[in-house]
Write a structure and sequence with these properties.
The structure is a single chain. It is built from 34 helices and 18 strands. With 713 residues, it is of the alpha/beta class. Strand 3, helix 5 and strand 4 form a beta-alpha-beta unit. Helix 14 runs antiparallel to helix 15. The radius of gyration is 33 Å and the shape is globular. The two termini are 31 Å apart. The structure holds adenosine-5'-diphosphate (ADP) and zinc ion (ZN).
């Protein structure tokens, strides 16, 4: 089979993504290669397709047991014989798999590095006909990578054992140093390197000021009541609080962190994967080894420590390529917390500096006033050609205003309070708040007390934060975060420097404006598509439960969406849906077709346009199956008998059980066909000459039936 045929037959996809095709050709040419693609980029196809094209078995080294299991499950669902070997299997199970390897039944074998390196195991592998070696998550071989695993450094033995077998190393994260190191460690220094863009255009990027987080998350989820998502928090306690808060608001949310016992953890994870929990609130302990392709949003409750982690975490959304959302909450306090964490860590000073520099890049992302995707991609040394149009800055460019007076008010209040107040108290002074803290320090007697009444608390908080960000105000973390003046502050106070700020807009207002700008009124078609998608999703869950599989293994969201769009009602149409390969068609096709037909029946009103193309045939078929004669069907459907006949002929061609002979006595058939033969008629010829030759003895419907029967023979 060619690689294209494999892609269609087993995976149900029509075309390769950029690079996939080149990578596979390289492998089929027996060359080594290194593949760098972001999460969801489609790395697996790069070795799974050659595995099916090549003779023999593909050995896949994969570090995460959970991932192995998922991948094998997904392969099997596509009708590809695959298995994994790791410490979780019994000796018996292992033996069965080893036998399948020897007999050549298996096409892909997943092995953990630990297992591979146990004594004699490599000897066993050497007895097999290995066609390709794939090293997944290959950054783990490098001490430079962020997930270094000592077992991985032994993997050079593979190339020694199989010098002529192509090797492909894959990873979603590797900078230049790591990249080189991977190739060195694996003993393939000359491997061809493929680097795909790290852009994930389907991920929408947005940042919100870190206030009223729970309320905003609630609104955010309320707009996506059926979508799965992950919320990342900084602390364990935080995950528990947020999950609890969301549950009180009626959202199926659970927390997850490394402090929970292993059993509960795996139950929570399982429920999430099976679409039984909508939201996971987790520390960064969650996500490694989660392959769930239909995560529709990722929220960061607090600021991540660096852009790599952030990108990896948001990368867990939208692996299936469908539009997905990301939302980062950002406040100055988060920066402070992160800085404290770095300060208090055991790291050597130079590492602390690196961490601080990385934190600073994260801050830049959060604060940027240009397209966020540009900022993100520049971090990965990629230059975006255009503004993305799919981030909050692009969709809602910041509006600036002349804010020198506001800045002066704030700065002078800081000065008069002897640079001893933190942000909260400063705002109280500016707004003239009558509270104990203010009275205790006699701040109500300051000249600046109440000079900033015209702004609300959150407006001041936003503007002071902006001033901190732009360096007009300093902050002393070691003095209870009291605000300080610097040279720039004095320039502003003296009127030597002007200040511009971005106009504050509460999240809700911003959101509402965005929605207004983008006409959200769904067309009738979209409404129908969404309704069908929901029905298909319910069926998917039912099937997944019957088979004890994650729903996204049955079909991805992307596949369901394409199906809801195309509304296939026969085999050919169903196989044209992206992600429906032969095995999945065999296993699930009929049930999904029936679901679509039911949907069409429920939604079709006489005389109205049909929601499913070709449904008119099905309506005819339904009546035919009830035993009605052609004339009766025609009458009921208000169509001519000739049309009904053409329906039945087409239905027959599509493999439906239609007995054309019942529709035409055999002497009539014989006479028509004898005449057609005499006229030397070919398939597709016009019927008029035949009609004339028979002197109008039979109507066109009968002629069609006879010819269809004839061609069918
Ligand atoms: P990665 O391992 O790089 O994170 P996957 O291999 O899991 O990514 O692929 C991500 C998603 O994209 C999967 O749902 C996969 O089936 C789908 N996919 C991969 N290649 C194609 C393709 N050529 N056409 C359509 N979908 C694809
Ligand atoms: Zn943008």
């Amino acid at each position: 089979m060619t690689k294209e045929q494999v892609l269609k037959k087993y995976f149900g996809y029509d075309t390769f993504r950029p690079l996939q095709s080149d990578i596979i050709d390289t492998i089929l040419n027996r060359q080594d290669c290194l593949v760098l693609m972001p999460t969801g980029g489609g790395k697996s196809i790069c070795f799974q397709v050659p595995a099916m094209v090549l003779e023999g078995i593909t050995l896949v080294i994969s570090p995460l047991i959970a991932l192995m299991k998922d991948q094998v499950q997904a392969l099997q669902a596509n009708g590809i014989p695959a298995a994994f070997i790791n410490s979780t299997l019994s000796a018996n199970e292992q033996r069965t798999i080893e036998t399948q390897c020897r007999t050549g039944e298996l096409k892909l074998l997943y092995v953990s590095p630990e297992k591979l390196l146990t004594p004699n195991y490599l000897d066993f592998i050497k007895t097999l006909k290995i066609s390709l070696i794939a090293i997944d998550e290959s950054h783990c071989v490098s001490t430079w990578g962020h997930d270094f695993r000592p077992e991985y450094t032994q993997l050079y033995v593979l190339k020694e054992a199989f010098p002529d077998i192509p090797m492909v190393a894959l990873t979603a994260t590797a900078d230049r140093v790591t990249r080189k190191d991977i190739l060195k460690q694996l003993g393939v220094p000359d491997a061809k390197v493929f680097i795909s863009s790290f852009d994930r255009p389907n991920l929408k990027l947005a940042v919100s000021p870190g206030r009223n987080r729970l309320k905003i998350i609630h609104q955010f989820i309320a707009q996506r009541p059926k979508d799965s998502g992950i919320i990342y928090c900084l602390s364990r306690k935080n995950t528990e609080e947020v999950a609890e808060g969301l549950r009180k608001l009626g959202i199926a949310a659970m927390h997850y962190h490394a402090g929970i016992d292993a059993k509960t953890r795996s139950e929570v994870q399982d429920a999430f994967i099976k679409d039984e929990i909508q939201v996971i609130v987790a520390t960064i302990a969650f996500g490694m080894g989660i392959d769930k392709s239909n995560v529709r949003f990722v929220v960061h409750y607090s600021l991540p420590s660096n852009v790599e982690s952030f990108y990896q975490e948001i990368g867990r959304a939208g692996r299936d390529g469908l539009p997905s959302d990301t939302l980062l909450f950002y406040s100055f306090a988060d920066i402070v917390t992160r800085k404290d964490m770095i300060d208090k860590s055991e790291l050597p000073p130079e590492m602390k500096e690196v961490q601080l520099a990385k934190l600073d890049r994260m801050k830049q992302y959060a604060e940027t006033e240009i397209c966020r995707r540009r900022v993100l991609l520049s971090y990965f040394n990629e230059e975006a050609q255009n503004d993305c149009g799919n981030c909050d800055v692009c969709q809602n460019p910041p509006v600036k205003f002349e804010a020198t007076i506001f800045a002066q008010k704030a700065l002078s209040a800081i000065a008069r309070a002897d640079e001893k107040v933190a942000m909260g108290l400063l705002i109280d002074i500016l707004r003239g708040a009558q509270n104990r803290n203010v009275f205790e320090h006699n701040y109500h007697t300051l000249k600046t007390f109440g000079v900033g009444k015209e702004l609300r608390y959150e407006e001041w908080a936003d503007y002071i934060t902006q001033m901190l960000n732009s360096g007009i105000i300093d902050i002393a973390y070691d003095e209870r975060h009291s605000l300080k003046l610097n040279t720039l502050s004095w320039q502003v106070l003296k009127g030597e420097r002007k200040v511009e700020l971005v106009k504050f807009e509460p999240y809700e207002v911003k959101k509402a404006r965005q929605e207004e700008a983008a006409p959200k009124e769904k067309s009738k078609k979209e409404v129908i598509k969404d309704a069908l998608f929901d029905k298909l999703r319910i069926l998917r869950k039912k099937i997944a439960d019957e088979l004890n599989l994650p729903p996204f293994v049955v079909f991805s969201d992307a596949t369901l969406s394409d199906m809801a769009q195309k509304k296939p009602i026969n085999k050919i149409q169903m196989l044209a849906v992206s992600g429906v390969g032969e095995q999945k068609f065999k296993q699930f096709g009929e049930r999904f077709i029936n679901e679509i037909l039911d949907f069409a029946r429920e939604n079709t009103e006489p005389g109205k346009t049909r929601v499913v193309k070709g449904f008119t045939y099905v309506e005819t078929l339904d009546l035919y199956n009830k035993g009605l004669a052609i004339e009766e069907i025609a009458q009921r459907r208000n169509l001519s008998p000739v049309t009904i006949i053409s329906h039945l002929i087409k239905l027959k061609e599509e493999g439906n059980d239609i007995n054309l002979k019942d529709l035409l006595p055999s002497y009539e058939y014989n006479q028509i066909i004898a005449t057609a033969m005499r006229l030397n008629m070919q398939k597709g010829d016009a019927l008029k000459p035949l009609f004339d030759e028979l002197e109008g003895l039979y109507d066109y419907g009968k002629l069609r039936i006879a010819l269809a029967m004839w061609e069918g023979n």
